[in-house]
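Support reply, case 0932

Customer input (verbatim):
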Amino acid sequence: MPVREQQRQDAALIAFRAVADEQGDERTTTLAHEIATDDAGPFEFFGALFTGGYDYLTFTPSAGGPTETWIAHADGSWVCHTTDTEGAHRVRQGGRQRLWDRIEDLHQEWNELGRPERHRFGLTLTPDAHTIWLDDPASAHSLTLTSVSASVTGRS
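Our regenerated output:
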């Protein structure tokens, strides 16, 4: 059985190969890729939870150029994040949703919520749904997963 790190790299590599020739929409960002890809980081759990999860792969092109971090979502959305020698961050993104835009929005919300760490989240299981909540089962900040679809409640 492959370890999680290998599974993540395999999924991101598939996304990279599928979109390598697609240009996507490019822009600058203030966030480094590590905000969303550091498994031990305080935001990564929150970001992955409310995007539905994503895979990533980081490499330096053999032809030169800045290191690329590719982030891929199961719906086919993708991000290619680079940082130039002056420290400026750029993203290209494509697919069904603007994944990096979503990560930035979630990062802002996470900050507004007081930067909650993993231990502040709980889980309630019922026969019909699984609900992940912040601080209290009655929290306005929750994510309900059903067998058919996922819906977020109490979210702006």
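We compared this against your earlier run and they match. Two observations from our side: Confidence is low (pLDDT under 50) at residues 1-6, 148-156. The beta strands are 25-29, 55-59, 68-72, 78-83, 89-94, 121-125, 129-134, 142-146, 150-153. Please reopen the case if you see a mismatch on your end.
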